[in-house]
Fold:
Amino acid sequence: MTDLSALETELVNAIAAASDEAALEAVRVAALGKAGSISGLLKTLGAMTPDERKEKGPLINGLRDRVTEALTTKRDALKSAALDQRLQSERVDVTLPLPQSPAARGRIHPISQVIDELTTIFADMGFSVAEGSDIETDFFNFTALNFPVGHPAREMHDTFFFNPDEKGERKLLRTHTSPVQIHTMMSVKPPLRVIIPGRTYRCDSDQTHTPMFHQVEGLVIDKGSHLGHLKWILAEFCKSFFEVDDVKMRFRPSFFPFTEPSVEVDIQCSRKGGEIRFGEGEDWLEILGCGMVHPNVIRNCGLDPDEYQGFAWGMGIDRIAMLKYGMPDLRPFFEADLRWLSHYGFRPLDLPTLAGGLSV
Structure:
């Protein structure tokens, strides 16, 4: 039989010399594996006489237990050393700032922010929001709005037309949000007070124009509305949106097919230092168009213009966003540049309110 003392000394020395857990596992397999030295001794017990087994059994089992204990102790020591080494090499500087959460890093696009601001302001005046499809028919986009046949806005260079359908009719991408006014007047009985924010499309592209842009229109239809009401609404809107105490407005006669009379609105501003500031200065800036709804438009919607009248206005959401927040170019609005959005965007949980501020 193998000298148990010599075997134990050999195994204990091998365990002590193991430099890592892989080397220690190799010693364990060599001793206690299926073909291990101690496992081989245990297998010989079955061939011994009862007296031999009584003598050799405790010695072999004791050797197995002492080697197992030595392996466990060495394994714990190696794990502790490895942990200490890892802690030394993976130190964390607790003085560093915490990384921002997704909610803190995320930003609301300025267009979404301005639409929320518009909705907040006009909701306070009793307006609801109306929406419609981006794809329209010639009737809702032009004819019902009193655009005569041959009007320049109907031409291909201004409008994105689809191919003719089986009936020979061509649908189009709406050139303004005004078709929603027609749908609303044809489906809801007056009085009406709605605003209509949404996307519009025209064949145009430069620093202040893009093929797709955003508009908001307002519509009031009842039996007693007049231009005085319109002027008050627009003045209150400009004061709230640009967050100034007072703003002077100038109304100039103009022409739009769907309103009569039609006016364009300028607001007082200062351009000193290359910065536009509202509520002060001696300059003027055109901001929107408006007017009394044309009797033909009211009639096209199935209403009696002798009984109902109203007014409407429209402005570019992208344009007023640029004016309020100092953005020099319209094109980055649609380029999905995270650096631009991080600079001009708004924190997602700071919802605009009239009491707390629109752009805090």
